[in-house]
Amino acid sequence: MTAALANRREETFLHLAGELLVPLPEGGLWWPEQRLLVVSDLHLEKGSAYAARGQMLPPYDTGATLAVVERLSAQLMPQTIISLGDSFHDRAAELRLPEAYAERIRALTSAHDWIWVEGNHDPDPPAHLGGRAEKTVRLGPLVFRHEPEGEAGEVSGHLHPVAKVKGRGRNVRRRCFASDGARLVMPALGAFTGGLNVLDEAFGKVFPEGLTAFALGEGKVFVLSGGSLLGDVPRGAQWKL
After folding, report:
1. CB within 8 A of 226, min separation 6: which ones?
2. Is the residue at 82 inside a domain?
3. Domain count, the chain
4. What's the whole-number mean pLDDT along residues 29-58?
5. What is the pLDDT of residues 159-209, one digit of tens each?
6. H helix intervals, the chain
7. 53 vs 145, higher pLDDT
8. What is the CATH number of the domain that holds 143?
9. Whole-prediction pTM value?
10. Which structural domain, as residue segments, surrounds residue 215?
11. Cα–Cα distance measured from residue 215 to residue 176, given in angstroms and rounded to the nearest whole number
């Protein structure tokens, strides 16, 4: 265990393409050997995007999301941070971004080698916020991109995975990492982001042999085998109009 993790709670580890990675309960991914922190699908300014269309959500999602990244940055002191696409909710997000939040982003990008991976929501990250843009990042046996393509060693986002299991008296639904040991899909870290159940057919295309879910808990990541997972629609059920 690295010094950066020494003061954290019990850690969960996963292996991907032979590399040891740490899925964090906040939703980030830590690669100790490279001092690399990965976060995905921040969707900054999603609240203001909805407000502009008349759906008045509290305008605090960007601040809450940045606070998580800032906390992980302070705890782990990464050399590099990769924001794995859909960092901003839309192309006009920078026009709605309060200057106080812009300053916090610039503080992060100036303190680290910050890489904005291009997403489907934000192909052109704002240049004035610092960092550098890449479509794909390759580092050792791992490749980082926004949308999964099924390549061995791939770390991607985009699908916003969630796992559902039976709890004590009720079902529990949590954001999660999804992996088969060869490829990994990150959870969405954004405060207002929803999620797609890992039993959805979209994940079957990425993990044809099945997957393990690493569910985010309070201060801990829980490993869930495929047999314990529940779908959002009971098996055999059909939608009725």
Report:
1. 210, 211, 212, 213
2. yes
3. 1
4. 78
5. 999 999 987 778 899 999 999 999 999 999 998 788 999 999 999 999 999
6. 46-52, 61-76, 93-96, 99-111, 201-206
7. 145
8. 3.60.21
9. 0.89
10. 3-228
11. 4
